[in-house]
Amino acid sequence: MGGWAIAVHGGAGVDPNLPLERQEEAKQLLTRCLNLxxxxxxxxxxxxxxxxxxxxxxxxxxxFNSGRGSALxxxxxxxxxxxxxxxxxxxxxxxxxxxxxKNPISLARLVMDKSPHSYLAFSGAEEFARQQGVxxxxxxxxxxxxxxxxLKLAKEAKTILFDYRIPAVGLDTCxxxxxxxxxxxxxxxxxxxxxxxxxxxVDGQGHCAAATSTGGLMNKMxxxxxxxxxxxxxxxxxxxxxxxxxxxxxxxxxxxxxxxxAAVMEYKGLGLQEAVDFVIKERLDEGxxxxxxxxxxxxxxxxxxxxxxxxxxxxxxxxMEVGIWE
Amino acid sequence: xGWAIALHGGAGVPLALPPERLLPREEALHHCLHLGVQALxxxxxxxxxxxxxxxxxxxxxxYNxxxxSVLxxxxxxxxxxxxxxxxxxxxxxxxxxxxxVNAISLARLVMEKTPHIxxxxxxxxxxAREQGVETVDSSHFITAENIERLKQAKEANRxxxxxxEPTAKAPKNEKxxxxxxxxxxxxxxxxxxxQGNLATATSTGGLVNKMxxxxxxxxxxxxxxxxxxxxxxxxxxxxESMIRSTVARDVAALxxxxxLSLKEAAAYAVxxxxxxxxxxxxxxxxxxxxxxxNTxxxxxxxxxxxxxSEIAIWxxx
Lengths: 326, 317
What we know:
The complex is a heterodimer. By secondary structure, chain A is an alpha+beta fold. Chain A has helices at residues 20-42, 47-60, 104-114, 122-132, 145-163, 249-254, 257-268, 272-282, and strands spanning 5-12, 80-86, 91-98, 119-121, 183-184, 187-188, 197-202, 208-214, 224-225, 235-237, 241-247, 289-295, 300-304, 309-315, 320-323. In chain A, a hairpin with a 2-residue loop joins strand 5 (183-184) and strand 6. Chain B is an alpha+beta fold. In chain B, the strands form 2 sheets. An 8-stranded mixed beta sheet of chain B has the order 4-3-2-6-5-1-11-12. Chain B has a 4-stranded antiparallel beta sheet with strand order 7-8-9-10. In chain B, helix 1 runs antiparallel to helix 2.
C-alpha cells in the first residue's frame, strides 16, 4: 500500500464497431498521457499539478471530446467546460462556456488559485482568461471535420428517432427509452460517444487530485452545462480519494457520482474498489456512465456500466494497464 | 408523518440590521409560510409547493433572489436557481439570468422541457424566450439597497484584502463586508407533501460584488440543493464553501450511510463548513424539519402537519 497512482480516461461508452485503427490511436494517446503523468510523479510533482498537465495533453489532442476535438453545440460551435479539485484542502475550480481558451483545465485551475470564486462561466470566464493572459485561439481551432460530420448525423438521428416513434419514455429527457448501453444521451453511440477526459492522481505524499474536461454533449443546446464542471458530480477529490466521471451527464449529476464514491468510503468505510462498484451498480438507475478513482493508499480503480471505457492506470509498484473493453 | 415545509431567506444576518429592514423580511416569511402551508393542505405536490414559495420570495425585493438580487462587480444581476424532485431525482438548474422574472420557474422548465439539467447565460435566456416565460428589463431587479450594498462591498474590499478566511469571529467579519449588512443570502424552500414526496428549490442573486460569470452553490446539485427519497435540502451561505463540502448531498448521505437522523445529519453538515458561512433548511420523508446555521442568524420559517411552526431570524434558545 502507499505510493503514487494515476488513472486517465477518455470517455465511457464506446462503439463496439469502432475501427481498430481508432482503438489503437486512442490507446496510444492514453499510454502517452499515462507516461507523462508517471514521469511527473517520479519527479515528485504534486497530484494537483499532475492531473492538470495530463488533462492538458488530452485537451490538446483532437482524439477525445475535450479542447480540440470537442463535441459541437446545436449551432456548430464549441463550448467547453472543466473542473479540477485538490483533495488536500478540497480547493476547487471550474469553468463552463469556454469558447477560446486553448486549455480549459488550466483556466479552471486559475479560477481555483487566482480568483475568490470556485466557478466562472461564459463571458465572465473568458474575461478572466484574458486578465490572466492564458493562451486563447479562435473557436474554429477546436472544431474538427469529424465532429462537423458527427453533428450532422446527430441531428439526423434525432429526427429519425422521433419519426419511428421509438418509445417516447425519456426520449425528450436524457435517459433514452431505448434501454441499451448502445444509446447514450438519446443518441446511438456510433453517432456520438461522450469521450469526456479526466485524470485522477494520488502522489507520493498521499494527496489526491482530480480533473475533468469536456466539450459536452453533441448537438447540445447553447448554454447547456453537464456534469464535468460540477464538483461532486463529474469531479471530486478529498482526503480519501480522487474521482473523475464520464458518460451521461444528467445521470452523473443526479447521482452526484464523484462525491458518492468518496461518501461511501467516508461514511460506510468501503474500500476504493468496493466504493466504485457500489456507485456504478446502485447510483446510476437507468443512466450510463463510468469513472476512474484513486485512493490515498495508492490504489487505483475504475468502473463503468457502459459498453467500454477508454482508460489507463498505473501504480508505483509497476502496474500499468490501458484498455477499452471489459 | 404528514406534510412539512421549511423555507429560508438567507443565512448571515447582521446584528445591526435596523427594524425597518427587518420587519418587511419577517412579514415575507410569515406570508410565504402561510402560502406554502395552504398549498400543502390543499394537496398540492411538494414540487409545486416549493416552486410557488420560491417564486414569492423571488418577487420580494428584500431578499437576495429575483427582484432584490445582489449585484455583480459590474452592477448587473446574474440570477441562478435550482429545483429537484426527490422522488425521481429529476432536477433543473439555471445560471446567469438577467431578465427572467422567476428563475426557479425557468429551472423547472429546464427539468421538464429539455433533455438537459442545466442551462446558463445566453443559452438560458434564449430558452426563456422560447418558453415564453415572463421577462423584463434587467433594471427591474435592481434595488437601491443593493446598489448601496455593492458600493460598500467595493469599499470594504480594499480592507478585506488584508484578511484571510472568516474566523470564529463571524459577526466582526460580516460587519467588515459592508457596513453591517451581510453578503450572504439566498432563498429556498423544501417540502414533503402528504404523499411523502420531497422537493427542494433554491434561488439567488449570488454574492455581492461577485465577478461576472461567477456561479455559486445554488445551481450545483449536491452543493446548495438536493433531494432524494430521504430528505430535501436547500442551503445558503458562502457558495465556495458549500461547493467543496457538497453540503446538501451530505445531509442525505449521512442519513443514508451513517443512519443519522435528519437533525443530526443537517447539524453535522453545517458544522463541517467554516463558521459564519452556512445554513440550511431540510425536511425528511417522515415529516421532520430542521433549520441549522453557523452564522449569526438565518431568516427562516417552518411548519409541520402536527401543528408545529416557527418563524425566526436569530438562533432559537
